[in-house]
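Our platform keeps sequence and structure together, in a single record for each protein. Such a record has a labelled line for the sequence and another for the backbone structure tokens. This encoding replaces a full spatial description with a residue-level series of whole-number codes. Below, we set out a record of this kind in full and without editing:
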Amino acid sequence: MENMKRTKQEIKKDQTTLSMDGGAYPWGLRITLEGSSLEKLGKDASDFEVGKSYFITAKAECQRISIEDDGKKDATVSLQVTELSVESSADAAIKDFDDAFGKD
């Protein structure tokens, strides 16, 4: 797993090129779960606590690839999450992963 936290230089660059909130992580990595999505996951807002970490297992489909060659080759890949589980323990997340994708 890769830590996606942005460096100070990345935050500064993004703030000068886009109107962003300057958060520690790149735009697009936040997942918002609402009513029916929480229901499908068998979760309720009371199952979560602000500041606590959760384990996500997901399957995603690539929807779009964009490569712009303006001297620095900017690339964007859009992934649509098609299957998702959210767990509060690593053991439960591993079980979800094994159930979805099989064990090696």
Observations:
- The two ends are 18 Å apart (CA to CA).
- The first strand starts at residue 55 and ends at 68.
